[in-house]
Amino acid sequence: MRKPLVAALFALVIAGAGAVPAVAAPAPAPESETVSATTEAAAPAIQAVNLAGTVALSNCSGSVVRFPNSLDTDPALVLSNGHCLSTGFPEPGEVLVNQASSRTFGLLNSAGTRVATLRASKLAYGTMTDTDVSIYQLTSTYATIKSSYGISALTVQNTHPTAGTAITVASGYWKTLYNCNIDGFVYRLEEGDWTWKDSVRYTSACQTIGGTSGSPVIDQSTGNVVAVNNTGNEDGGTCTVNNPCEVDESGNVTVREGINYAQETYLIPACFTTGNQLNLSASGCTLPKP
Fold it and tell me: Model-level pTM greater than 0.70?
């Protein structure tokens, strides 16, 4: 996990490549500047992907998201990583639900300019077990954000992503877009004390860095969120912090130095019901429970 910036104190933080604890990100570029980190040929669909709806946390990236059944009048949600929590990394097996929070998020428009500060009312869900995710409920509704700032939430896809899909990792912290493809899926991704299931592996073009942790991974053809960026193997180490390793069904370990990863998000929509409220007992919800 790439360390969250503020987490330099912890010497852990999964910001950039998405690794569990990684290094703090350097000072951000001016708010008006949007940097393209794309190294692959841009397809026409890429032009539709920008920074609108992404947010900057104090130490990571994130995005304002909704689910297929969310209503405009529902309280908006922000998606990021579990390792980006201001309270530090959740322990293996730890799941946090419906905890009071007043955390703030800098909302960006398509050009990467900060247009508003959004505030959480609670942490709805957070864990680093099986996945690496945090979901905050905001004090604002989708309708309020749209009418006030002209920005719509990104929709979280409720079906499994597909290998080969062209994707964009959109970092609100760095105001940067990384374009590549889904290279494949990892049965188990191990980093330090944490294990994540069915992780997304990027092709080498997405060279995410510290501070990009929590960035939405966007399908360029649909504009939907299919994963959340969380770690990468920085030094070629085996299964250590900032050096996750891939483990297959037979227990074989593979290390891919310089390759980055994300956690799928398609399981999340089934766990949020009427009013965008978390319900871990809902039919089809398979997220880890406390």
Answer: yes
